[in-house]
Amino acid sequence: MTQRFSDDPQAIPAARAIAKGIILTYTVGTHKADVQLVGSHPTALSAIRVATNIPTADVVAGRQCTVLFLDPANQDDAVVLCIQGASPSGGGSSSVATDAIWDAAGDLAVGTGANTATRLAVGAANSVLQPGGGTVAWTTTPTIGGLATFNAGLKLASAQQIIDSDGTGRYKPATASPHNTLTGDVKIASGKLGVVANPDATIYGLFRDTGVLDGYFGLCVDLGLSSGAGAAGNLIGVTGRAMAKSAATSFVYGLSFLAGAASATVSATDIAAVLASLYLLSGSTAEGHNFEGNDPVGSISIMYGFRQKGLTVGTERHPFYDDGTTEDADKHANVFKTSTQFFSTTIALGGGAGVMGIANAAVVPSSNPAGGGVLYAQAGALKWRGSGGTVTTIAPA
Predict the structure, then answer these.
(1) CA nearest 22: which of 73, 74, 59, 70?
(2) Domains in the chain: how many in total?
(3) In Å, what is the CA distance from 381 to each residue of 25, 310, 358, 361, 364?
(4) Which distant-in-sequence residues (6+ apart) come within 8 Å of 71 by Cβ?
(5) Is the omega angle on the peptide bond into residue 319 within 30 degrees of 0, that is, cis?
(6) Residue 249 needs a FRET pair 20 to 30 A away by CA distance; which of 106, 269, 305, 325 works?
(7) For the segment 9-33, what is each residue's pLDDT rounded down to a tens digit?
(8) What confidence score (pLDDT) does residue 8 get?
(9) Given this model, what pLDDT does residue 233 score?
């Protein structure tokens, strides 16, 4: 209860402005104490203000104190000036480094309200402070509400990775190959891709390295070589589509490739722009094709299934060359179903179908062929020159 001195004039003489007391209780939130004055009426003085320079840890029940009465007739004007029996501590103008609130290295003082604070013990290793909902706590999984800027870069600890919101690792860097591992689908929403080169504005995926790279592969697609049966469906190693829309477009190629040599020291056994091979590790197929062309769709004036433009390079030039397939009666042979014109790019079949046209020889053979003969047309007549030099007219013009 609050006792007014005017109610009991014997409690504190009017001339007594400073008195000795004993701390009975103390409230941290208000920084006030109940005090029993030494030699006074046994009724305690309640809610006496404690000087702000006195640390809360010093205000302990049972300790003696000195009370100043600014108005001896009104305890609300009283204040506890000092506490006896307390060790020197920080507070007011003293150093906060020696404040009694500290218990261990790394402790922090955290405000809990107006003019109040509490001790926050040091957090676990590698933890950071995370404010939230009026509190502050240590955490090893902080949440950043805005854009984070790292002026010196971002470094992940060994074997760590960037994880999505569902907890799945998506990107993992490493100091050894593979140096970058992506998990899940990848989409480049805009822009172009450059590998060992700056991206090109007109090329969606550019692989470029102009160094000495003999023994390397530019692009490798390796699918399906594993044990076990697969689900039904088609398997295509490389597929694509190139569809022009501009009236100014002159050429459209589904696949265009250049192979060759860039040094005079190269002496390759074989160079091919396209190399096709079929390989059945097991199983079988009804038909196999090194090259297969499908029937085109659309309006095309002249359609070529296969066209070899004029060869101007090579000591020997073979627009089409069959290395020789082992003969087997009617099973192994070149097969031509469509009428065929030989020795001219001008088709002259006389309106026939399923026929063979032979243009007049540009140069009539003048020497005897070894091991066979030469069939040719001259002035419209079909002729044969044998290895003995005899020229036979098979059919007149």
Answers:
(1) 59
(2) 3
(3) 134, 28, 10, 10, 12
(4) 77
(5) no
(6) 305
(7) 445 554 468 889 999 999 998 999 9
(8) 54
(9) 85
Contact indicator for 52, 92 with CB cutoff of 8 Å: yes
CATH of the domain at 32: 2.40.50.140
Burial class (CB in 10 A: 0-12, 13-18, 19+), 75: buried
N- to C-terminal Cα distance for the chain? 143
If DSSP states are collapsed to H, E and C, what string results for the chain? CCCCHHHCCCCCCCCCCEEEEEEEEEECCCCEEEEEECCCCCCCEEEEEECCCCCHHHCCCCCEEEEEECCCCCHHHEEEEEECCCCCCCCCCCCHHHCCCCCCCCCEEEEEECCEEEEECCCCCCCEEEEECCEEEEECCCCCCCCCCCCCCCCCCCCCCEECCCCCEEEEECCCCCCEEECCCCCCCCCCEEECCCCECCECEEECCCCCCCCCCCCCCCCCCCCCCCCCCCCCCCCCCCCCCCCCCCCCCCCCCCCCCCCCCCCCCCCCCCCCCCCCCCCCCCCCCCCCCCCCCCCCCCCCCCCCCCCCCCCCCCCCCCCCCCCCCCCCCCCCCCCEEECCCCCCCCCCCCCEEECECCCCCCCCCCCCEEEEEECCEEEEEECCCCEEEEECC
The pLDDT, as a whole number, for residue 223 is 87
Alpha carbon distance 382, 23 (integer Å): 136
User: For residue 274, what are its two tokens?
Assistant: 């396209």
Amino acid identity at 195: V
Domain of residue 361 covers: 333-397
Q: What is the mean pLDDT of residues 67-93?
A: 78
Give residues with Cβ within 8 angstroms of 87, minimum separation 6.
100
Q: What is the pLDDT of residue 93?
A: 45
Two structure tokens written together for 310: 């004029």
Q: Which of 76, 96, 116 lies at the terminal end of a domain, its last residue?
A: 96
Out of 29, 63, 96, a domain closes at: 96
Tokens matching residue 373:
């003969």
